[in-house]
Design brief:
18% strand; Ubiquinone menaquinone biosynthesis methyltransferase; Rossmann fold; ubiquinone; methyltransferase activity; alpha/beta; 6 helices
Length: 147
Amino acid sequence: MATVTKKSDLGPNNNPNNHHLLLAGLKFDAKISEEARAIVSPPAAIEKAIREDAARALAAGFSYTELQIDPDLAEEHLAVFEGLLQTGTYDAVMIGGGVRMNPQLTTLLEKMVNACRRIAPGAHIMFDTGPGTTTKCLERLYGVTFE
């Protein structure tokens, strides 16, 4: 089953220009190859980095919907991703490195990018550089600064 989490907080500045994000990536404890696991942090460290980064985004006035994808259920979770795009309004969609950097998930990545272009053509597409770097994407896209 796909894990979908919605978070919204206008933050301390009560930002009226709230941007809503769709953050899609592998679930923290996804079964991945041994060589892929060797280059990424343990699941608890990944979750901690992502949660801390998301808290910074929330505090700055961003809201988000998070989709955790199980690679064993890629097609099923692609349908959930497409459903979220159809029912939500997103200013940006971030596709995580766990999907992008896994050769076995190249087809899923292509389908996700094409779904964004087809269903939410006005949404920016963002690519993080690892767990806890979504705010770096937001800095590049919106010119905001995070501490």
